[in-house]
Amino acid sequence: MQVQHGLTDEVQQLEGTMTALKQKRAQSQDVLHALSQQLTRIEEDIACKTSSLSLERRSLDTRSKLIVPPEKHVPETDTFNRTLSPVKSRQLELA
């Protein structure tokens, strides 16, 4: 009778342990799901930022091609601060 009572107690402890482990497993799965969603958002954010950075680099490259070097810059006024005519400006550009 005492052996049967001992086995019954052990079965109840095992069932309690199983219930606790199932709860922890469910909590762990919830955390895993939340972390997976967060990882997805981070990866999407990185992709967006990578695209933005690429666009910014292309813009900077385009701007650098549009900037006129000082040696090729044609002033709109001469040394006496007189406005140059469009014809003279074009002649200076061709020079």
From TrEMBL:
GO cellular component: a single term: microtubule cytoskeleton
Keyword Secreted: no
Annotated region (Disordered), positions in chain: 73-95
Main localization, broad class: cytoplasm
Gene Ontology biological process: cilium assembly; cilium movement involved in cell motility
Highest taxon in the source lineage: Eukaryota
Coiled-coil features, chain-numbered ranges: 4-45
Cited InterPro entries: Tektin-like (IPR048256), Tektins (IPR000435)
Protein name, as recorded: Tektin
Natural source organism: Acipenser ruthenus (Sterlet sturgeon)
